[in-house]
Design goal:
With about 160 residues, this protein is an alpha+beta fold. Helix content is about 25%, strand content about 25%. The radius of gyration is 15 Å and the shape is globular. It binds tetrahydrodeoxyuridine. Tetrahydrodeoxyuridine binds near residues 42, 71, 75 and 115. Tetrahydrodeoxyuridine (THU) binds next to helix 2.
Length: about 160
């Protein structure tokens, strides 16, 4: 038996304003996108904004349904929309994610396991890292350099 340790490096910013101009804009696009969520059951609104390699942005938000498993998270809504609308540009540089709770306050949101799996497949397809920016408590932001960092020992065919 060998005991091994896994480490990930990530960055944390004290505020959205501490980000680069492009990432700041992406976070604000995610915040706006959260307003369009359809989340009458959880009342937890999530916004995601995906930057494509040509600089354009595709947004998504969570879409719920009375038949609960039929809904979809913001991150997958965004990347599926991007892949569907721009099959010529399946090349993504950054994804920003924010939450808005039932009280209307911005809050932490981190991609669920299913979204990580989906994001990872597109990251592998493009052959270079997709950075992930998550809003944290107190307006801080966590940046991970790739989806692979968020999904160790992942499944692939
Ligand atoms: N949700 C997302 O959209 N993204 C996440 O990263 C986590 C959870 C949604 C799913 C559901 O509509 C609501 O948040 C509560 O789980």
């Amino acid at each position: 038996m060998t005991e091994k340790t896994l480490t990930i490096n990530y960055k944390e910013y004290a505020t959205i304003d501490a980000l680069s101009d492009a990432d700041k804009e992406l976070m604000h696009r995610a915040i706006s996108a959260a307003d369009g969520a359809y989340a009458p059951y959880s009342r937890f609104h999530v916004g995601a904004a995906l930057r494509l390699a040509d600089g354009s942005v595709v947004t998504g938000n969570n879409q719920e349904n009375a038949a609960f498993p039929s809904g979809l998270c913001a991150e997958r809504t965004a990347i599926f929309a991007a892949s569907a609308q721009r099959p010529d540009m399946r090349d993504y540089t950054a994804l920003a994610i924010v939450g808005r709770n039932a009280a209307g306050e911005l809050c932490e949101a981190s991609p669920c396991g299913a979204c990580r799996q989906v994001l990872l497949e597109y990251e592998r397809l493009q052959g270079h890292p997709l950075r992930v920016l998550c809003l944290l408590q107190e307006g801080r932001v966590r940046e991970t350099g790739s989806v692979a960092d968020l999904m160790p020992f992942s499944f692939s065919l």
